[in-house]
Amino acid sequence: MGIFRRPRDIPSPPSPAIAEFWEWWGQARPRIEAVLNEGLTTELVEELSLRVHKIHADLQWEIGSGQNDVPTLTLSGSGIAELRGLAERWLRTAPARTNWEFRAARQADPEMLDQKLQLADHELDLGYVRLGMRAEPGRARIHITVFHPDFLFVPEDIQLQVAFHVLDWALGEDDVARWIGEVKVATDQPTDALPPGMLSAVVDQISEPFREPAWLTGEGRTPRGHPARLGVRFPLHRQDYPLCDLHVEVSVPYAHSNPDRLPVEPSASALRAFEKRLSGLGDRAVLAVRQTGDGLRVFHLYADPDSGVVAELDQLTAGWAEGRAKVASVPDPGWRALAPYQP
After folding, report:
1. Most buried of 72, 111, 124, 200 (most Cβ within 10 A)?
2. Whole-angstrom Cα distance, residue 236 to residue 214?
3. Nearest residue to 195 via CA among 109, 107, 123, 110
4. 228 close to 257: Cβ distance less than 8 angstroms
5. What's the pTM value of the predicted model, to 2 decimals?
6. Per-residue model confidence as pLDDT tens digits over 208-251
7. How far apart are CA 81 and CA 84, in angstroms?
């Protein structure tokens, strides 16, 4: 389990390995189904692990059951942002007609919160887990302290594994990434601690004001010392755009400005119309940041590299009438370029 959820450099998705996985799955599925009730054999576990790790070494898999006891296969990046798109591409190439359900992230499973969890030589009754929760509404985050009385007797790595198992079962892997901030473990029960089953209600309360897209705005100075304006879409979650691995920077000069070199009409209207086009790309790309100053507006987007959006943006900028607009792109599956703009 990737309990530390740290960013890392990950290359472009190896589509041949995904295709090879599904080809192997078609042959191996009958053998897997034949032993589902008793548990997979060591040979099948090793085979499945090998196929998954050919896609990426840090991906993990789980077999379970969904609604109406339909068997499920989950491929998970354990909350690592750089792996979310890879798991999604695996999911979207899954066979359409099958008696299996496939998932690209661990789903919430509240029933597990009352079960016993075996990790290494340690068995912990999850019914005794309590969560200290500190909400930070301005950042749409909840910071968590996870307590279990048996944490006194288990090493910290086991404590952290318990913590992230509990959070994933309480919310689902994607919602943990969206709304949970810092995660700590404790051997003393926090004040006003609650059972994990209450976490989803707290998340609903924190996230409710952010159901509709919003922009945070600010002012600063350009490197030349002139006024600058900044707009940041917030909150913006990697999990809502799983295929958007490509950071795209669109730089648009404007011809009409005030003495502070900020846009005025007719450039202001032209920029608004241009931004409207950028905001209408659907799931293929999302506009994240806009920076304005010194006669230039720079838009930062994240795009699906296989959607044709970059070529479309090239055409759009070619029609800009107020100077030479530019499009530059670089793979950034972890959305690291957004870090300086996060509140």
Report:
1. 124
2. 9
3. 110
4. no
5. 0.89
6. 998 888 999 999 999 999 999 999 999 999 999 999 999 999 99
7. 5
